[in-house]
Amino acid sequence: MTGLVKHEPLIVLVDEDLSHIDFYQQVLSESGYWLRSVATPAKLMTILQQHPVNILVINMDFPFEGGGSLTAEIAKIKQLPSCRDTQIVMTSTQFSSEQKQLAYRSGGADYVVYPITPEELFLKMGTHLTAGARKNVSSALSRSFNVLSESNIALYPMMAAALSCAQMLNQTSLSNKQALYLNSLTRSLKRTGVICDNLRDFQELSSHYLTLENTPFDLDQLLESLREYLLSEAESREVELLFNVPLDVPRSLVGDPDRLRRVLLNIIDEAMVVGEGSPLILSIRSGQMKDHCAVLEFAINQKVTDGDESFDDLEELTERLVMSKSEVDESINLLIASYLIEQMGGQVHYDYDDGEPGVYFNVELQLAKATSDKSFSVPVDLRELRVLVVDDNPSSIAVHKAIVESLGFKVDSASDVDSAFTAIVEGHLDLEMEPFDLVLLDWHMPGKKGFHLLEKIKNDLEPEKHPLVIVISAYEKRMIDKERGQGKIDGYLHKPISASVMFDTIMGVMGQNLPKTHRRVMGNKQHGSAVTVNGGGRRILVVDDMPINQQIAREVLMSNDFQVELAASGREAIVKVCPAPELYDAILMDLEMPEMNGLEATRIIRETSDKESLPIFALTAHTMERDRQRCSDAGMNEHIPKPLDADNLLQKLAVCLGLAVTSQSYCEGDTDSPTEDHEYVDVEDGIKRVMGNESLYFKLLSDFVHQARAQENKIYQQIDAGQLTEASENAHNIAGSAGNLSIVGLRRSAKQLQNTLLALEDHQPPLDHFKRDMDNAIKEIGEILLQQNQASISTELLNAESAGGETIKKKESNVDQAKLARLKVFRSQMMSQDLIAIDTYYQLMVDYCDLAPKLKPVGDKLIELDYVKALAAFNAYLKESKLDISPAEVKGASHER
């Protein structure tokens, strides 16, 4: 045999196809491997008995002498003294799942389908030699690892460059088809990155240099990123994935999140291949807790309830994972997963108590000292509401039902559209039960789909009986929007769903208000009340760093005969209160402020005055029981949630100060024409928050545009500078102001950005959502202010004409020099492409009503950051209006913004 290198390790090639033997010789013979080939059955046993064999590569169609079966012949080979520690690799020219199972049942450690690349061949041979634990193989292994290292090092920069280009391309204008292609490309690049990471870990394991990271991370964020990695593979294989992670599992952990995610990814990836379309459930349970550590129990199986169909696909996968370090798998996925589990202080369980086939293992992780675990407590007004889970998969029903029940809701289930609609109708007919407030609707079910239920609800139920609907689907949201027709969807969840994401979505949909189908809302729908209190000149100190929040609180209090003083920080409050606490009757204290927060300020104030002599009320968006306890421990009397509700504030002030409360009742029909619905701004609710003062509310909206844009720019600058904590504080401020002005959509995305920045996770997706919602919300505010200004114009014109047309002509003849000066500044900002131009635009609309309709084309282009077209539209307006804003015309004018 040519090219024979008489050094270990020994690889025996058994194949009638000489091209396969030639391929192995060309790739491996010069790399320190000793190759022996067998092309005829008669020579097989003779060659195998001559020397200890490290790896036996045998074609599954090879005709054994005597015509025995593959299983029987492999058993004979393993009885040979020279083959007791041999790694047996089965090869074939065509893939077959039955043949693959036969290969493993016969005792094979690997199953390879031709053709195979030289790089993959090197990797497999090195992997099998490592698993065989042979001596004197360092020469061949080192050469293989050198090739592996060089390949992997070359892959990383190319991967990073490709991913960066994809991200930059995503910032450009794309068609729907291009966006779909780009999304697939990005996911594929991420998956390729996982392969590179596996190769790196394989190399480090082989050279004993593997070290684990020890960084804080959030379990829910890890699951979200895992979902992103698995989406495309699950969709292509039509596998339904579920996350079953109860809310009592600790979320704030310390460990190596990248490698833990890769363990789960490697095992689930293999499970999807083995399961061949069967559903997969990832379950995580909290095990033993000790010494600031937690043992998390992981399970990957295909069945949650007894009613599910039984599968045994994962029995093979469990055995392969357990034996991966001695009987090497066809890929390095399970080998890496097994080693990493062991490195993390865990172990794989071969048998499980309930006997359900699956992969079971545990991992030991530290608990984060500065925990960011959020409370999953549901506000009192939302507890005991009824939820209907509609899904054809019993496992999906069981997982989602368990999560919703743990939140304190009453849950029922239905397996198809017809039974779901019947349950909704019966909920209204049964006097002993309350109707369903929320429906969690699986979109893709056999027979009638989710949109059929939406159509039945819309067509066959009165609007006041419509429940809230959150769609759950493995499909992208844009596909759902195309299919839903006229049906209304209140929220969307993408499978697989973590408990935390479901909690956030339900709370976002329901908010702090009861759903309209709830009996308490139905009973109060015809009659409302507005609380009034006679403050009698009592002095209230409002401590808040946001001017908009200060103005809202001030308006509510002064409208009820309170005196109001303002402080912008906890330190300023201490300076005002501590020298003479008797000057104040109560304090409204924001919790999160710069310099000194509300809790610290309260503790210091309590050194000079107690709860009875000076009540302190916490103003905060954190409304869960844990947050209330923190406020109470600091010395606060009461807890008032943000966004600020005037009735709630006045009632609590009245109780603490011993004041009489008057409720002014009104009927729903007493209101004027219905307020136009907007996507982001709830104008009607916002006006209620400032005691019906419309002028103040619209002024606050205008002020919000200026303040929010400035804080938005700060957020971008701070993120670029790595100041994530400071950026999260600005996001918190925007969320608070947006909530108090009932800018609901922006409040939600700003809050999500704040939480992501605090968790030190990937902030790009929530930052993109925040930027989108900020632009859309400000554009909507501009439209609202434009409508308001147009109404003012009509009123002014009507009054002027009734008094005589000469007044208008006189006004038109006067050129407002100040206005021209501001227009000049506005044009200069657009020419320099300054973001402040959009703020100037809105302020011009507010201050000069006559400009609003004429400058609208300019504002539309500014929203899109198209300064060239905005400037062209502005110049067209100047030409049409015959305005000259040359420097000479506005000499000495103010440059104020």
Pick out its properties.
alpha/beta; single chain; disordered N terminus; seven-stranded mixed β-sheet; disordered C terminus; 51% helix; five-stranded parallel β-sheet; 897 residues; 32 helices
How would you sum up this structure, described in words?
With 897 residues, the protein is of the alpha/beta class. Strands 6, 7, 8, 9, 10, 11 and 12 form a seven-stranded mixed beta sheet that branches. Strand 19 (539-543), helix 18 (547-558) and strand 20 (563-567) form a beta-alpha-beta unit. The N and C termini lie far apart (88 Å).
Broad structural category: alpha/beta
Mean pLDDT: 76
Strand content: 5-15%
* Cα-to-Cα separation, first versus last residue: 88 Å
Instruction: State the helical fraction.
Output: 40-55%
Spatial extent as radius of gyration: 35 Å
> Main beta sheet, described?
7 strands, mixed
* Helical run tally: 32
* Overall body shape: elongated
Low-confidence stretches: 1-7, 133-142, 516-529, 665-674, 791-815, 887-897
Question: What is the subunit arrangement here?
Answer: single chain
Number of strands: 24
Short description:
The protein has 897 residues and is α/β, with parallel strands linked by helices.
SSE topology:
Elements (H helix, E strand, L loop, with lengths): L9 E5 L3 H11 L5 E5 L2 H10 L4 E5 L10 H10 L7 E6 L4 H9 L4 E4 L4 H15 L5 H33 L5 H31 L8 E4 H19 L3 E4 L7 E4 L1 H19 L4 E11 L2 E9 L12 H9 L10 H11 L4 E2 L8 E10 L18 E5 L3 H13 L3 E5 L2 H13 L8 E5 L7 H11 L7 E6 L3 H7 L7 E4 L4 H12 L8 H6 L2 E7 L5 E5 L3 H12 L4 E5 L2 H8 L8 E5 L7 H8 L10 E5 L4 H10 L3 E4 L4 H12 L3 E7 L15 H7 L4 H27 L3 H17 L3 H15 L5 H40 L2 H8 L3 H15 L4 H12 L4 H12 L3 H15 L16
Parallel strand pairs: 1-2, 1-3, 3-4, 4-5, 7-9, 13-14, 13-15, 15-16, 16-17, 19-20, 19-21, 21-22, 22-23
Antiparallel strand pairs: 6-8, 8-12, 9-10, 10-12, 11-12, 18-24
Helix pairs in contact: 5-6, 6-7, 7-11, 8-9, 9-10, 9-11, 13-14, 19-20, 24-25, 24-27, 24-30, 25-26, 26-27, 27-31, 29-30, 30-31, 31-32
